[in-house]
Inverse folding.
């Protein structure tokens, strides 16, 4: 690949070349990935490197925008994973979970978008699926009262749990328990 082809990739912010080469800007002392959205440097100020280690060894520091020092820098996926971990740990406590999620630093709609792009479902949809799985398990494997199960999986009322469960499974929790009871 020629320097002109590399410069064209830099101008186009072409992510297809990320990991193929890195470019360093002599005037700033910073090196970037080809997909970096920073200001397009002058061609005469650029040096090209095959690896981030070579750029560092030559005295350049990684860009803080594109995180050229990391193998893969996908902050939105990291945020989505952080949200998923919170939901996994707290799906039973809806209000506490929502309070924690608000501290992620994104607006409600942006959080939903980021999570949905990463996992194909909204945070609420994901939490609901965890609640449903846990409720199914408890109905099959325990003698707990339905109201206790409803409260333990994060529902504030029995009627809300019944509506949700029947909407998802097509039968009430009691009927589901009778049909799917595992032998103890």
């Amino acid at each position: 690949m020629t320097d002109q082809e590399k410069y064209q990739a830099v101008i186009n912010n072409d992510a297809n070349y990320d990991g193929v080469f890195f470019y360093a800007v002599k005037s700033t002392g910073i090196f970037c990935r080809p997909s970096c959205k920073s200001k397009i440097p002058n061609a005469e100020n650029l040096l090209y490197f095959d690896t981030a280690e070579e750029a560092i060894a030559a005295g350049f520091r990684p860009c803080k925008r594109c995180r050229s020092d990391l193998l893969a820098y996908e902050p939105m996926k990291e945020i989505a994973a952080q949200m998923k971990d919170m939901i996994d740990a707290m799906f039973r406590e809806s209000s506490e979970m929502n309070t924690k999620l608000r501290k992620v630093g994104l607006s409600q709609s942006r959080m939903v978008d980021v999570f949905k792009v990463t996992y194909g479902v909204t945070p609420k949809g994901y939490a609901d699926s965890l609640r449903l799985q846990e409720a199914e398990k408890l109905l099959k494997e325990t003698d707990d009262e339905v109201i206790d199960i409803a409260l333990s999986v994060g529902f504030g009322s029995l009627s809300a749990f019944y509506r949700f469960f029947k909407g998802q499974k097509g039968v009430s929790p009691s009927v589901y328990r009778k049909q799917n009871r595992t032998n103890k």
